[in-house]
Amino acid sequence: KTLCDVILMVQERKIPAHRVVLAAASHFFNLMFTTNMLESKSFEVELKDAEPDIIEQLVEFAYTARISVNSNNVQSLLDAANQYQIEPVKKMCVDFLKEQVDASNCLGISVLAECLDCPELKATADDFIHQHFTEVYKTDEFLQLDVKRVTHLLNQDTLTVRAEDQVYDAAVRWLKYDEPNRQPFMVDILAKVRFPLISKNFLSKTVQAEPLIQDNPECLKMVISKLP
Question: What sequence ranges are listed for the domain BTB (predicted)?
């Protein structure tokens, strides 16, 4: 590139560019170069916590309006496009991820979408989670959810399940995955299960016989209090 008037410093890499091109493609750079920020007068601009390859792809997009989004770079591209406010790239990444949502990744995509303020992507992921909950709760992603997210999920009225015993099964699987650390949350988690909707046979043979519940007096009392 000739007559470049800015160098983006990304780790050890120097990426030459033109301010006007970056400003046209990115609201972030537009503000940087048209206000009284220190970088507006600097020939070299350091981008901290950025990936050189990703920044190069975004700079190339600023010149060509073309970029390749794939499973290897989509998360990094979406993060960077969000940070540097390059809306067309953000939309491409969102559209790509919407097509990739499945039982194994929908929870992670929902969390990512929430963190990066992508409501359309979050809605797609959440709809999938609710409609395919019986598959989703058997994945590693579900077992690794934090207590706040799993409590919120189990509390939803829109979960598609054959019967409420599947919600109970999901709660127990999550608790047992890290029982020593999750024991303090046992009552709150199991309180999200609608025990009156569970068959008496399942309640007597499975729920009341569960060691996790039998060994916790408070939990056992709570379960019994919810029995029909």
Answer: 4-71
Q: What is the pLDDT of residues 170-218, one digit of tens each?
A: 999 999 999 999 999 999 999 999 998 988 888 888 998 899 998 888 8
pLDDT > 70? residue 1: no
CATH architecture of structural domain 132-228 = Alpha Horseshoe (1.25)
Domain ranges within the chain, ordered by starting residue: 132-228
Rounded to two decimals, what is the model's pTM? 0.88
